[in-house]
Specification:
alpha+beta; Sufe protein. Chain: A; GMP Synthetase, Chain A, domain 3
Length: 226
């Protein structure tokens, strides 16, 4: 069945704003990967005194929702301070577009993560960002994996209760995700996003992820998972 897009999504897909790359950008970041189907790169020009994002552009490698959410995210960020943009969430991007199909909500997450990653890079280079002393435990892992969105429902896997367990062994993180037989078709997508999210933690040396069905059938893993 064809996805139902709002007029605003179609508008930003067919006539995206701020497409391209800023020459001599102050910061640049890429989120996603071709393997997952969607990728977006943002480049920013930031006033060092006011912290205002004076210009922002993007390049998208993905679907209509990927393009539309990146376009909307740039229009929401341009002219705002980096502090204001850091307070924006992915749901605000989706709402500004009049809503997204649940299966495409992850595109709004990708867009906001990309923007915030570029801002973080800019702050680090100028000594304005102090890396948190993150303790590797179940609580921090669950907090991080709230960014992994189930393609069918548009909700994160933690809220849906799909995380069967989390175990920590030194700098290794073991995660098992359990999915219903009817949504096992999304196992590859959720697996890839879970591994990608965990590997962003500097304190995580290795992310070992297993995805199983409710009946116990192995759907995806990356090796020596408990």
């Amino acid at each position: 069945m064809a996805l139902q897009y709002t007029e605003k999504v179609i508008e930003h897909f067919t006539n995206p704003q701020n497409v391209g790359e800023i020459e001599g950008a102050d910061a640049q970041a890429t989120e996603g990967s071709p393997a997952c189907g969607d990728m977006v790169t943002f480049s920013l020009k930031i006033n060092p005194e006011t912290h205002i994002i004076e210009d922002v552009k993007f390049r998208s490698y993905g679907c209509a929702s990927n393009i539309a959410t990146a376009s909307m995210a740039t229009t929401m960020a341009k002219g705002k301070t980096i502090e204001e943009v850091k307070e924006l969430g992915h749901k605000l991007v989706a709402e500004a577009l009049g809503g997204l199909p649940a299966v495409k909500m992850h595109c709004s997450v990708l867009a906001m993560h990309g923007l915030k990653s570029a801002i973080k890079q800019w702050e680090i280079e100028r000594g304005l960002f102090e890396e948190e002393n993150i303790v590797l435990n179940e609580k921090t892992v669950k907090k991080l994996l709230r960014s992994v969105i189930h393609p069918q429902t548009g909700e994160n896997i933690v809220k849906m209760g799909l995380m069967k367990w989390v175990k920590i062994d030194g700098d290794k993180v073991f995660v098992e995700i359990s999915m219903g037989d009817t949504d096992s078709m999304f196992a590859d997508n959720i697996y890839e996003e879970t591994v990608e999210a965990l590997e962003k933690m500097k304190c995580c040396g290795q992310a070992l992820v297993k995805v199983v069905s409710n009946s116990g059938k192995l759907l995806k893993d990356n090796g020596d998972v408990l």
